[in-house]
Amino acid sequence: QVQLVESGGGSVQAGGSLRLSCAASAYTGARSWMGWFRQAPGKEREGIAAIYSGYAGSGIPSYTDSEKGRFTLSLDNAKKTLSLQMNNLKPEDTAMYYCAAAPSIVPGRSQLSPSSYNYWGQGTQVTVSS
Question: Which of 38, 42, 56, 83 would be 95's cystine partner, CB 3.0–4.6 Å?
Fold first, then answer.
């Protein structure tokens, strides 16, 4: 049973920082895609950042343009722990943040598309006040 457990959410003021972590247990194999997504009330779930983890190590993270420069994705390949460092947070970053994983992604699909992922965590809430 694949489990993804997020932690690190909370409430901060605008301009503050948070670090989210996602621990993956009993994953399906040594090769996988992992990513962070978020969903604000009344909005669709959207991708933030994703990375491929393979036998030779991790690939280069991909980011949604709006988060590039503020958010940094990192992966501890040995521990299968995915982290998202979020700096200069804005009120519009307020959302439930989810970790997701997939053994592979269908060619032609984006690694930042929620539909590309099979496994999801329960989410961790991030609230940014102005």
Answer: 38
Strand partners, 62: 50
Instruction: Work out the pLDDT band at 26, boundaries 50, 70, 90.
Output: low
Which 3 state secondary structure label does DSSP give 13? strand
Residue 12 CA to residue 3 CA, distance in Å, equals 27
Cβ(3)–Cβ(122) below 8 Å? no
Query: Taking a C-beta distance cutoff of 8 angstroms, is the pair 127, 8 a contact?
Result: no
> Per-residue pLDDT tens for 41-70?
999 999 999 998 876 667 889 999 888 789
> Could you tell me if 61 and 87 are in contact, meaning their C-beta atoms sit under 8 angstroms apart?
no
Cα–Cα distance for residue pair 64/24, rounded to 1 Å: 23
Helices (H) and strands (E) in the chain, counts: 0, 12
Rounded-to-integer distance, Cα 113 and Cα 83, Å = 18
Task: Return the number of other C-beta atoms located less than 10 Å from residue 68's C-beta.
Answer: 13
Burial class (CB in 10 A: 0-12, 13-18, 19+), 41: exposed
